[in-house]
Specification:
The protein is an alpha+beta fold. It contains 3 helices and 6 strands, in the order βββαβααββ. A hairpin with a 5-residue loop joins β2 and β3.
C-alpha cells in the first residue's frame, strides 16, 4: 500500500484547449496541479517501481469551510459532504493522469475506486493505492 497527501486547495482536471491554429494543449493550472501530485508522490515514494497489476485507488478530498459562513453553519458542515464545484470525477482524473506511468504503468490498471469530497479543517487530497484485487464483492 502507498498513501500520500497533497496539501492545498484541490484542483480539478480541466479540459484540453485548442487554439485557432488547431494546436491542443493542457491548461496551465492543470499542469501545475498534476506536477504537485507527482511531487508529493515522489517525495513519499522516491524509488518505488510502478505497480504492474490491478490497482485499487482511494481519493479523499477535503475543502475548507468558507470563512463567510456563520459559526452554526460552519460547525454543521465539518466532515459533511461538499456538494458544489469542482466535480469529484475531475479531481480523480487529475490524480490518475498525474500518477500515470509513475505509480502504475497505466491508469487502465485501476480496477476499483473509492472517493469522497467533504469539508474539513484542512484543504487537500489524500490518495491511497493498493496493488492487487482487494475489492472482492461477495
Amino acid at each position: 500500500m502507498r498513501a500520500f497527501s497533497i496539501p492545498g486547495k484541490p484542483t480539478p482536471k480541466a479540459r484540453a484547449r485548442t487554439t485557432k491554429a488547431g494546436v491542443t494543449f493542457t491548461p496551465k493550472p492543470t499542469q501545475l496541479a498534476e506536477g504537485k501530485v507527482l511531487e508529493c508522490y515522489l517525495a513519499a515514494y522516491p524509488d518505488a517501481p510502478p505497480y504492474e497489476g490491478a490497482v485499487e485507488l482511494s481519493v479523499m478530498v477535503y475543502f475548507s469551510i468558507p470563512p463567510s459562513w456563520s459559526k452554526k453553519k460552519a460547525a454543521a458542515a465539518k466532515d459533511a459532504p461538499h456538494v458544489s464545484r469542482p466535480d469529484l470525477d475531475n479531481i480523480i482524473k487529475m490524480v490518475t493522469d498525474a500518477l500515470n506511468g509513475v505509480a502504475f504503468k497505466d491508469d487502465s490498471q485501476i480496477s476499483y475506486i473509492t472517493a469522497m469530497k467533504n469539508y474539513g479543517t484542512k484543504e487537500g487530497v489524500v490518495v491511497r493505492l493498493v496493488e492487487g484485487d482487494t475489492s472482492a464483492v461477495s
